[in-house]
Model the fold of this input.
Amino acid sequence: MDERGFAAVVGHNDIIEHLQNATKSGKISHAYLFTGEPGSGKKLMATLFATLLQCEKGRANPCMKCASCKKALSQNHPDIIMITHEKQNVITVSEIREQLVNTVDIKPYESRYKIYIVNEAEKMNPQAQNALLKTIEEPPAYAIIMLLASNPDALLSTILSRCVRLNLKTVSDKDVREYLINEMHLPDYEAEVAAAFAQGNIGRAQEAASGDTFANLAHRTVQIIKDIDKLQIYEIVEVVKEISAEKNNIDDFLDILLLWFRDVLLYKATRETDNLVFRRELSEIRREASVCSYEGLQEIIDSIEKAKTRLHANVNFDLTLELLFLTIAENM
Ligand SMILES: [Zn+2]
Done:
């Protein structure tokens, strides 16, 4: 969150409008559930809403100038409480009791509301959820609880039924691209590739745009595809292993590969270049589009998807990649 408040949020206009209207009319629920994949902006949205609710000026946007907003900006607001947890994969019942249930009856120190934000709420174990449920069922008038979850199915239905649910969908590629150009200062072409890679997720776009890891990865991936007929499969697997060890994530590599072959397929079908992610590599895309058949390209795309699934199921890394590159080489 920064001084621009809601203006800095990319997309999600429907949710922002909902939160602004609720604040304006004073019809605030005691429990909110923000859902959306990791990186979709749940925490930012909840923090902005909390700041707006506590703002001394109380307009459609937090003023960011009053004492309350300043404290919220510096993450130092005594009445906006972020629940923390010690173990990475679980929020325990004692954490929920200590930080929330046992303190909720103490009136807000200086603001209208007392707001609790539970990030990664799906990590609450059943005991923790049950402890929280009692508070959600009978909260003090000033209490507001915001749960953030990428996997809301892990929450008890009794909790779900009491929350106003706001789902942060993916934002358009165009919005992501503009964000990358204007805010992250990426050159046009790189923004194009990173936006396609981000698939509407600003967190993922930020990750791709910070440092040169992503641009590097994209460049090397394209290089591997170009060399695929010159190298032995085991040599390629070695290179990919090296690359993915750097980021400890083979998914990014496979996603870029997927974007590439979708480009080849798109070009083969339409001969249009405007919608290509990798349009800077047009000569290579053109070459591959002419040597690959439609069936071959589809087979390659399917095999990339298959490799992703296999790796998630912990099937042997080398074997999976060898199989994938064999399929690619055969069809090119
Ligand atoms: Zn303010």
Summary: The radius of gyration is 24 Å. The beta strands are 31-35, 80-82, 114-118, 143-149, 164-167.
